[in-house]
Amino acid sequence: MSKKRAAGVSAGGAAAAAAAAARDKAGVLAELEAEIERANRAAGVSAGGAGGAAAAAARDKGGVVAELEAEIERANAESQQLRRDVESQPMSVAERARLLDDIDYATRVQASKRALAEQITKMLYTKESELALWQKKSLDSCMQYNEALIQLSAQFPHLAARAVDEK
C-alpha cells in the first residue's frame, strides 16, 4: 500500500475512532442525565415520605453521586486518551483541527452538563430543606391546635371530636 493511502486509511481510522468515541461520550452523557433524573425522582419521593424513607433516599443519592463522579472521571480520562490518539495520528492539519474541535466541543458540553447537574442538586437540597421546615411548622401547628382543644374540651365537650391526627 502506498504511504499516501496508508495515511488516508489511518486518518480514516482516526476519524472513525473519534466518531466512535464521540458516540460513546454521548452515551455516557445520556447515562449521566438518566442517573441525575433518577436521583431527582428519588429525592422527590423521599421529600414526601417518612424519616426512614428520607434517610434511605439520602443513602441512595450518595451512592448515585459516587457512581456519577466515577463515570465522569472515566469519561474525562477517555476524552484525554482520545485527544492524545487524534494528535498522534498522521492526518492533515484540517482533519486534525476538526477532530480536536469536535472533542473540545464535547468536553465543553460535558462540563456544562456537570455544572447544571451541580446547580440542580443545590436547588434540590434547598427545596428539601424548605419542605422539612414546612413539615415541622405544620406539625407544630397541629400540636398547638390539639393542646388548645384539650384545654377547651373541658369547657366544651363537643370540641373533642375535632382533634387532628398528627400523622
From TrEMBL:
Keyword Coiled coil: yes
Coiled-coil ranges (or none): 22-85
Naturally occurring in which organism (per UniProt): Plutella xylostella (Diamondback moth)
Keywords: Coiled coil
This protein's name: (diamondback moth) hypothetical protein
Top-rank taxon: Eukaryota
